[in-house]
What does this fold into?
Amino acid sequence: MADLQASIERVWAQISPARLLQTTYDFVSVASPTGDERAFSLAYAGYLRSIGLDVEMDEEFPDSPSVIARLRGRREHPLLQFDGHTDTIPTPHAAPSLDLGAGIVRGRGTADMKGGLAAVAEALRAVRAVDVALEGSVLVTAHGMHEAPLGDQRTIRSLIRKGIKGDAAIVAEIGENFLTLAAKGMALFTIDISREGEPMHELEAPAALPHPLWAAGRLLALLDERRRELARQDLPLVGPETLFVGEVHGGDFYNRVPTTARVVGTRRFVAPRTFDDIEAEFASFCRTVEQETGTTVRCHLKHVGYPFSISADEPIVRCVRQAYRSATGQDLPTRGINMVGNASDLVGLGGVPAVYHGVNQSTAHSDDEYVVAGDLVRAARVYAASLLLYLNGSAA
It folds into this structure.
């Protein structure tokens, strides 16, 4: 173990704060809103190729190609995967800026999650520079179509179904000071309520005419009843399942009976509940509203993320916690989260033990998104140490 720690410290000595900042700035200077990630995917592939990785592109989705890169060791397994998404939310942000003196990069995607992708590349560059003999191998996957509502995880799910996955994975976002052992799954629901005919003046409408807004009110009552029921069932690590309504639409004038209404929201759930269970739950809501109001009710559910949990005894969990302690001198506590990220697919669909560790996410999706040098360096150090511990230590 002393020799392994010495190798880790030699790798750490190759990690450059200035280069990390410059690389992150270069990455965020290439726009990659969800569904239009090709330019950045090519840039990231080129960067990984320039530091000595074997790189290929999965072109199944031409506007959102996936980057697949490998650093080969003596054996293919154990295979540690570093994973991340290439897209950013399609929301305006000030032009990227780099202040080397202050050690900060600003721009859309710095925190979520091009800073993490830069730290992965820097860690691998450092490992290559020291020429450490790796007993196993490294897989890097970077893919688009992540950020909801446009993103539907089709790219990562395609890679997993093709068998492009590791024996364990680190997703380079979230969890800069904690380690996730469990997360809720998520479904995004859109429920459309309609009736036949045209909009009518309230005084001309027959008494029996179905009214989509009253139907929406009944639907909201059912959803609220279920929300309250879920809130009473606190669960370990992740807390209660949730049902949230964020949008209600309907009507176009104060005295007209409309023909449509819409309710939109989220349903977050935990294992062993499945997406099929959520579909059945919402089908029941819709049937009840149809039967009671005479309207037509249709629900579209988008499966955003799988629920998952992994054991604290997984080798990747032990390795990342040990790497963090070595890099920072502090313990890395474990917890659950409500948000959905790529670990949900890796664990829930791929059966890959996966954890999150990235740069500080506090400014993600904000109007002033940024990352600082210290965060980038800490992430790169943890990635490098985790890699060596996993491939040459406890999992080898």
Remarks:
- The two ends are 13 Å apart (CA to CA).
- The chain has a mean pLDDT of 96.
